[in-house]
User: Fold this.
Amino acid sequence: MEKSRLIVYIVVCFIASVHLGVVIPLFSFISHDLKLSAALAGFVAAMLPLGGLTVNFFSERIVRRIGFQRTMLLGILLQIALLLALIAAPYSIALWVVVRYLLGVSFSLIFMPPQVSIGVELKAKKAFFVSVLGVVFGLGLTVGPLLTNLKAIDVRLPLIAVSVLYVGILAAVSRIRNTFLPASEPHAGSVSRLRILKQIWVAMLPAILFGFCEICLTAIFPMEARDRGFSEAQASLIISLFPLSALAGQVPAAMLSDRFGPRKVAPYLYAGAAAAFVLPFIYYSFVSLLAASLMCGLMIGHGYYFTVSYVNALTDKETVVRANILIEAAYNLFTVFVPLAVGFYLQLAGGATTVFIPLLAIAAMALATHFVSQFRFRY
Assistant:
């Protein structure tokens, strides 16, 4: 893989991560202003991963037909069109449902080419460059929520800033070489995917836990923070600490994984995340929420790319493409139901509960599933 193409991939992933970090909390703030119920807000939030899940069924076919570069270019052009729609049109529930669904489609088209091409084209340092993508993703999610503070000037200003970034990178993306997936093997098919899933399903737990934490902290927690009297600046700071601390945890987790193996490192990540979610129950305050977000980011904020590295180590060149698509599909499928389930739970429970109850529950379930799997399966 040429250095220039790799650099462009990384820059585009950063811009898309910034966009993701902007649109999720921005919707939460706007839904609070529109006085949406927790259940309805959860339904709209679920449209983002649902869009990604939809394109997962066709992503391999798309890349084989038009290549990595054109797939990414298609995603960027769709993002720009959706941003212009949000900037120009008055906000409504119907608009957010359609836009968030199509954003999920476009995010998948953007993030998939770098992730898969690294696994297919690079012969060495795959784990290193996967970690670089993780760091870039964390940086973008850190910058994004901070940009939402621009809504104090105009609610559309954060979206305008992201649009400018996308337009600025278009020329570079259009100039990089277009590459394609290698020819598929005769055994590739549904049976092969089931075999791969059986091989890698335990390695998907960090990505699933990360998705749960990301959705709950960025899409649902801002509404809880407002209801409990926190300002938008305080909520944005709490949210930003999650991806920011993930940057600090990315390299140590990768080093420990290289030395001891990801299977031995993973349970400590789950236990650390569970411990983080206990803190708000000890004393619910701005400081304790900062500490919980910080600790959660250190432990599981890099979970998606921890899973990618884990799965790349378990698969060969012929199965890595489908394995990466399965990771994203499982992540999107899980995060479709998270905002719906958590939204309904918070609405039924009322103000006496907190989003950290389901967060603690899912972290404990991931830890238990990991240990149970060691007695039943060899992986």
Notes: The mean pLDDT is 83. The chain has 14 helices and no strands. Residues 18 and 143 are 6 Å apart (CA to CA). The two ends are 30 Å apart (CA to CA).
